[in-house]
Amino acid sequence: MSFPSEFKRNEAQGLDLGWVNQLKVNRNAADRRAASLGARRTVKKEYQAAWLIRALQCIDLTTLAGDDTPGRVERLCMKALRPLRSDLVQALGIEPVTTGAVCVYHEMIAPAAQIINGRIPIAAVSTAFPAGLSSHETKVREIELSVAAGATEIDIVITRKHVLTGNWQALYDEMLDYRKACGEAHVKAILATGDLLTLENVAKASWVCMMAGADFIKTSTGKEGVNATIPVSLTMVRAIREYHEQTGFQVGFKPAGGVATSKSALQYLTLMKEELGNEWLQPHLFRIGASSLLTDIERQLEHYITGSYSAAHRHAQP
Ligand SMILES: O=C[C@H](O)COP(=O)(O)O
């Protein structure tokens, strides 16, 4: 389990509507800062290899497809436990590593648990993922069932209409219930930012979910038209930073959806380091939700060691 024993989980703070209503985001400034991150030369050589290994350790290795089978999930879990070939691990001179977690649908928790056997967290998407439009009772029950089935992390989706209609109380109340239903399992609140229209809504939804006790805030389900982006992530990590300054609680961040290249993973690591500091570069405070990123990281690490690239299909796909 990747949460240090001394780590103090976020706790519900009560909804401060006055604070939420006055939040503003300067879109141009966010875009400029995002562009500067994109244009930055990336870290090189051994530093890059070290950063890529860290990115790998923060991946929530994900499969969320309608045609998922126990077999596919078992292969994904084996890959999560041993994400790098042993010759690469040896050449890098590191101890064996794992991904941060695996992330699956409820029905796939049992096959995942067979392979994972408590070695890394199993995250289950919940609350009628990805649209979140079942009844509240159904969604709370789904969380309870996933926790009972062995999920130690629950990725909930918020009800977007609460944001789009400015009903912050309803968003707060549902998040509070979800957090309670999770019990000891850590809860990631998926904002589905591609549906929220403005960065101001993203900032407000981030704050409301944190005020209601979310352990992590996560950008996207991977199913919206637009998934993780740097301007949205910047808005969310700045909310995390300010929330930490005000309450002392550290909330994690998870960009998800469309993060498929080492280059973009390095941009997210840079964002975390520059906005939140080194402490947030660890799996208990940072995850990348991704289905195919691992393959590219493995290729880049192989290139670092051998000087040449192998075809992506030579690396085992989950
Ligand atoms: O939460 C994770 C996403 O669903 C994965 O999205 P992806 O397939 O674009 O990497």
TrEMBL record:
Pathway it works in: Carbohydrate degradation; 2-deoxy-D-ribose 1-phosphate degradation; D-glyceraldehyde 3-phosphate and acetaldehyde from 2-deoxy-alpha-D-ribose 1-phosphate: step 2/2
What Enzyme Commission number does this protein have?
A: 4.1.2.4
Transmembrane helix found in the keyword field: no
Please name the SMART domains in this protein's record: DeoC (SM01133)
- Entry annotated with the keyword Phosphoprotein: no
Organism's domain of life?
Bacteria
Q: Which Pfam families match?
A: DeoC
What reaction(s) does this enzyme catalyze? 2-deoxy-D-ribose 5-phosphate = D-glyceraldehyde 3-phosphate + acetaldehyde
What keywords tag this UniProt record?
Answer: Lyase, Schiff base
UniProt xrefs under InterPro entries: Aldolase_TIM, DeoC, DeoC/FbaB/LacD_aldolase
Q: What class of enzyme is it?
A: lyase
Which NCBIfam families is this protein grouped with? deoC
Q: What is this protein called?
A: Deoxyribose-phosphate aldolase
Q: Which organism is it from?
A: Zemynaea arenosa
